[in-house]
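Section 3.1: Structural characterization of target chains.
Under the original work plan, the team committed to producing a structural model for every single-chain target entering the pipeline before any wet-lab resources were allocated. The record below documents one such target. The sequence was received from the expression subgroup and is listed exactly as submitted; it comprises 242 residues.
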Amino acid sequence: MTTEAQQPTLTVDELAARAGVTVRTVRFYSTRGLLPPPVIGPRRVGRYGQEHLSRLALIEELQHQGMTLAAIERYLERLPADLSAHDLAIHRALVASWAPEGAEEMSRAELERRAGRALTDGDLQRLAAFEVIARSGEQESFRVDRGLLGLGLQLLDVPIAHETILAARAVLLEHSRAAAAALSRLLRDEVGEPRPDSGTDPERAAAVRSLSAHMQPLVVQALVTAFQRSLQQEVREWLKET
């Protein structure tokens, strides 16, 4: 059953503001079939929901990757039609993991426009702790990590303590670095040890980069899938004990 919180409530102007695009862009994507049609409410006003917002974020991320509109259309056509907003957010996170690191300057007003609400000083401190934002030279200006912004804004509404979220982040970083180190050793073993008298071996370095480029997408997908299934299993076991 769809809850009230899941009902489409955003006007096209509000959707565009939350997504950081123009209304014209939203309408253009809709005419190309990249966005599902809005729910028509009272007075024939179209209302948009979280699914539209998540799909817009995915489209914008694909554009950041350099994909053409035609390529994005083909990409979205291959996705299951019943993907939820949550599924789309996870998919976008996977796509964003291959985007070059980048930050953009953003005012507090723009941050609040993207969040769809006013941000307290506590919210800003929380975003800074997540390394989503960093204060720029001006008092009300921030350098914003584009890839983390959506996640950071969602975490503001997670009903757990700030310290718990930071502790969870530390756990993920620790184990991801350990996994990366172990996989790096496997890659080095695959291409062989350098010759003692070779110094910097260009051929070996090229082989490592080539193998890494081929393996990274598979490794990330495997890690995300394994983690998702492990977490679901842990939750099931926890619920059995309560």
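The first helix runs from residue 12 to 19.
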